Every structure is written in structure tokens, then in C-alpha cells.
């Protein structure tokens, strides 16, 4: 696997071993006051409601139900923490932007998540999930600006990439990549993934495993 310019990746074998090892739910926080102690490097997954955050976490770890997949968008209201072999913490953030015709972040989400982003020294990276079928929406752009403001490094992962034909996916990939270059905290690597087909998971695993404890 060849690293892209500016990208730090772990060895594929060690990355696969980390994500295939022990993984368990350890904490659910309904407010910033209820967050767990900071003991491990944290990778947070953020995205619109129903973009596939829980599905991606399950696919990365080879589990079917590590993270609960809700059939009702906007149902998950907690920040959920998953310990990966006592070397890395995966954090499933509540989805944002679920409201009919809403283009603005819910005040509740913005307050809670902004406080987490700004006050979490153990947070090493955010994986921002973008639905490949829709590209960057206004609410996603608002979150990117929030992450820029928080000075939190984030990498973008396109989800449900198997829903598009190769030419269509390439077009979306280029458009999202160009958008990311206009944001100061966006990481240069862009990942096209499919939790259903398994596409792009190894590359993302290698990227995230590089941030884990030895």
C-alpha cells in the first residue's frame, strides 16, 4: 500500500491485527460532564444522521453489532466509546443535521460536540463521514468549519461508495477532495469506503492504526 503525500500509515498486517483484536464498548456519555478519563488516543467518527457511522465502525472492527445501528435517523444521542485492544479508542458521535429540510446544525449537537472537540487532549483525529451519493452538503460544510475553528485534524471518508459507478465515484471524490483543500484542518487523505462491500477499509485501518499506542 502506497501512502499518499503527507499521510502517515501503519503496516497493513499490524493494522489488521489491531482492528481484528479485542474491541468492546466501554462508555456512553450524554453530556460533556459525563465523558470518561482520557487514557488512550481517540479517533472520533462524525457525520450526518444515517450516513453510516456505526456501520463503518462495525466493518472496520469486523463486528456486526459493536456499534448499534439505528434504523431511525437521529436516534443516537450519546457519545459512545469503544476500546480497541487498550491501544486506541473509537468514538461514535451523535449524528447531526437530521431535521426535515434543515441546513443548520442543531444547537444541542453543536454545543455538546464543540465542547468535546475543544477540550479533549486525547483526540488525535476526527473521521468525517460524507455520503458519496450526496457529496458535501451545507450542514457538512458547517461541521468542517467547526472543526477548522476547533483546530482538530480530520480526514474525510466517503461512505456507501458502492452505490455509485466508478466514473461517478471518481467525480464525487475529486469534488470532495477539492472542497477539503479549502479547509485548514482537513487531512490530505480522502477515503472512499463501503461498509457493505468492504472497499477502502484496509487503507482507513492503516491510517488510523498509525495513531494507536505501540
UniProtKB/TrEMBL annotation:
Domain EngB-type G: 39-214
Domain of life: Bacteria
Cross-referenced Pfam families: MMR_HSR1
Cofactor(s) the record lists: Mg(2+)
Keywords from the UniProt entry: Cell cycle, Cell division, GTP-binding, Magnesium, Metal-binding, Nucleotide-binding, Septation
NCBIfam families in UniProt: GTPase_YsxC
Known function: Necessary for normal cell division and for the maintenance of normal septation.
Similarity comment: family membership: Belongs to the TRAFAC class TrmE-Era-EngA-EngB-Septin-like GTPase superfamily. EngB GTPase family.
Protein name: Probable GTP-binding protein EngB
Organism: Rhizomicrobium electricum
Lineage: Bacteria, Pseudomonadati, Pseudomonadota, Alphaproteobacteria, Micropepsales
Amino acid at each position: 500500500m502506497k501512502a499518499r503525500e503527507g499521510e502517515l500509515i501503519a503496516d497493513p498486517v499490524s493494522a489488521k491485527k489491531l482492528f481484528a483484536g479485542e474491541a468492546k464498548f466501554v462508555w456512553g456519555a450524554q453530556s460533556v460532564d459525563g465523558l470518561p478519563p482520557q487514557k488512550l488516543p481517540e479517533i472520533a467518527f462524525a457525520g450526518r444522521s444515517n450516513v453510516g457511522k456505526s456501520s463503518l465502525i462495525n466493518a472496520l472492527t469486523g463486528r456486526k453489532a459493536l456499534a448499534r445501528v439505528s434504523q431511525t435517523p437521529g436516534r443516537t444521542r450519546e457519545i459512545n466509546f469503544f476500546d480497541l485492544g487498550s491501544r486506541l479508542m473509537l468514538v461514535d458521535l451523535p449524528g447531526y443535521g437530521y431535521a426535515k429540510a434543515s441546513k443548520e446544525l442543531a444547537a444541542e449537537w453543536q454545543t455538546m460536540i464543540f465542547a468535546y472537540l475543544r477540550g479533549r487532549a486525547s483526540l488525535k483525529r476526527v473521521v468525517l463521514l460524507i455520503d458519496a451519493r450526496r457529496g458535501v452538503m451545507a450542514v457538512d460544510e458547517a461541521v468542517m468549519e467547526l472543526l477548522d475553528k476547533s483546530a482538530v485534524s480530520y480526514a474525510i471518508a466517503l461512505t456507501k461508495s458502492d452505490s455509485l459507478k466508478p466514473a461517478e465515484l471518481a467525480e464525487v471524490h475529486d469534488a470532495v477532495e477539492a472542497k477539503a483543500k479549502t479547509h485548514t484542518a482537513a487531512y490530505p487523505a480522502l477515503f472512499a469506503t463501503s461498509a457493505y462491500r468492504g472497499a477502502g477499509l484496509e487503507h482507513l485501518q492503516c491510517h488510523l492504526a498509525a495513531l494507536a499506542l505501540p
